[in-house]
Amino acid sequence: xxxxxxxxxxxxxxxxxxxxxxxxxxxxxxxxxxxxxxxxxxxxxxxxxxxxxxxxxxxxxxxxxxxxxxxxxxxxxxxxxxxxxxxxxxxxxxxxxxxxxxxxxxxxxxxxxxxxxxxxxxxxxxxxxxxxxxxxxxxxxxxxxxxxxxxxxxxxxxxxxxxxxxxxxxxxxxxxxxxxxxxxxxxxxxxxxxxxxxxx
Length: 200
What we know:
By secondary structure, the protein is α/β, with parallel strands linked by helices.
């Protein structure tokens, strides 16, 4: 598995709130021995989540904007089952491991954590990121994890979504083109049949 794709326990070790609390006394030695892969305590952790099925420019812009709000970006990724529940039985187009691999390969993404629950509340409550990011199409009182993050001293940021960019729109365009091509092929077949000489 890609090193950027983490289980929740791995994400907690690398990016969790406990890692960011100042060490003192006996804990200071343990902190100095922290593995190099653990995010430095001074780094601000940013979290966002989504399905990220058929990655498009709107996704990229949101992820880059989120990453600019801190030093590390953790992305919660809906599992295949979660996407089906949200988007319908014909989604996702790409399975969860492929979606996770694509996200983890982006320079602006530091880690991907998949979740099977209806919301990423468990991940957010466990990591308590410094910044929680959601698209501007979400009402502030509907942002999952807001209470947990703000209670821990973090903040919630809404990022405007790019107009005209959506996986649904891409799929609709593909389906429309496919229907057009099928109809054209059907007409060509009928024309060839009509033009063929009748057998004597």
